[in-house]
Design goal:
The protein has 208 residues and is an alpha/beta fold. 55% of the residues lie in helices and 12% in strands. It is globular and about 50 Å long.
């Protein structure tokens, strides 16, 4: 049997950094499931296909290659927006969740991060973490990251985007963002990555 670590939470809460660090520390395979939604959205945008046709989006979702996912190619803001639009479609979710479930069985262990890992994709995960932070802190981090890369940004616009994305992710009928009942909550509002990592590590070590 494999060991599964499920990490969920809203956009820009620090899940990505934490998940990569955990996967490296334990020598586990890592899947950032947001990239599967982003890759589907990018393929639709590139082919100038509509974002509101569920059958077309589902067909694209089946073509996503988990081995070819690269955040640097999928980071654009428009791709994130388009991803959260197609992520409300049950047929798209079914296709991507199937691929994510298959990935989660890899030996010796896996770390999957997203919105519905502990609740839908891997409810059997041995460790479930829910990583969150206030919208203001998340917006500040996203803003700093963008300006740090020389991308012009407006803090209030970034904050408005984060709030809109939260509403869409938490408000959808199929697999809304919420902590699993048995998830450990890690609030990174006033915590650096080191503190968040050591909180996660003690939960994982206790379950191993
Ligand atoms: O995490 P990231 O911002 O890359 O995710 C992009 C979008 O994909 C999210 O806003 C969310 O709507 C969707 N998503 C999802 N379920 C996941 C991961 C991402 O619905 N497990």
């Amino acid at each position: 049997m494999t060991f599964i670590i499920a990490i969920d939470g809203p956009a820009a809460a620090g899940k990505g950094t934490l998940s990569r660090r955990i996967a490296e520390t334990y020598g586990f395979h890592h899947l950032d499931t947001g990239l599967t939604y982003r890759a589907t959205a990018k393929a639709l945008l590139d082919a100038a296909l509509p974002l509101d046709d569920e059958a077309v989006a589902e067909a694209m979702a089946f073509k996503v290659d988990l081995a070819g996912l690269d955040r640097s190619v999928l980071a654009a803001h428009e791709i994130g927006e388009a991803a959260s639009k197609i992520a409300v479609m049950p047929a798209v979710r079914r296709a991507l969740v199937e691929a994510q479930k298959a990935f989660s069985g890899r030996i010796p262990g896996t770390v999957l991060d997203g919105r519905d890992i502990g609740t839908v994709v891997c409810p059997q995960a041995q460790v479930k973490l829910f990583v969150t932070a206030s919208p203001e802190v998340r917006a500040r981090r996203r803003f700093d990251e963008m300006t740090g890369h020389g991308v012009p940004a407006d803090y209030l616009a970034v904050l408005a985007d984060i709030i809109k994305r939260d509403e869409r992710d938490m408000g959808r009928a199929d697999s809304p963002l919420r902590p699993a009942e048995d998830a450990h909550l890690i609030d990174t509002s006033e915590m650096g990555i080191e503190a968040a990592f050591s909180a996660a590590k003690s939960v994982i070590d206790a379950a191993l």
